[in-house]
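Rotation project, supervised by the postdoc (A.L.). Task for the rotation student: set up a whole-complex structure prediction and record inputs and outputs verbatim in this book. Inputs entered:
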Amino acid sequence: MAQSSRKKPNILVSGTPGTGKTTTASLLADATQLRHINVGDLVKEKNLYDGWDDEFECHIINEDLVCDELEDMMEEGGNIVDYHGCDFFPERWFDRVVVLQTDNSVLYDRLSSRGYMGTKLTNNIECEIFQVLLEEAKTCYPEDIVVAMQNDCVDDISRNVTILTEWARSWQPAT
Ligand SMILES: Nc1ncnc2c1ncn2[C@@H]1O[C@H](COP(=O)(O)OP(=O)(O)OP(=O)(O)O)[C@@H](O)[C@H]1O
Ligand SMILES: [Mg+2]
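Outputs recorded:
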């Protein structure tokens, strides 16, 4: 079951760190008046993590707590969920799953200028090269709701936001 009684669509914006999820989701929220939920920020605000992963240098999020926190909003609809993973969200939550993709050299520069280096940088670049997030999305959601979008330059963002805004406007609730 792809959708419940929600009157507005839920969109997941996924992709390797640095591919532009937050930038895109934020502009899309402005254009559509949907609610932008940055899962990373939510996890920090509400302490929805179990600890710190030394190898990957990131919080270990508690997936059950995140899903509990989001359930009511997702049921209501009208959300843009911004997260670099998608395998622990219920399939029924989303009407569209966007996977942003960025050229390796562009992503390398973005992540380096953010201070990423060593294993953390290499892991993220490999994640992008092997299209890990796109494969994950295709495994977890019906193929017809998963869409890959290139996000290298400013023109890409405008085009992607326009396409997704049009999609959101024409979305119809299940009858
Ligand atoms: N299309 C684009 N053109 C130029 N710069 C971009 C573009 N998209 C994103 N950026 C820049 O790349 C950096 C990463 O973008 P952003 O923070 O949106 O990525 P993210 O996917 O949310 O990353 P994270 O997973 O770490 O939260 C930012 O500095 C942003 O300004
Ligand atoms: Mg982000």
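Student's summary: The helical segments are 21-32, 39-45, 63-76, 104-113, 118-129, 132-140, 154-170.
Supervisor addendum: Residues 21-22, 82 surround magnesium ion (ligand 2) (CB under 6 Å).
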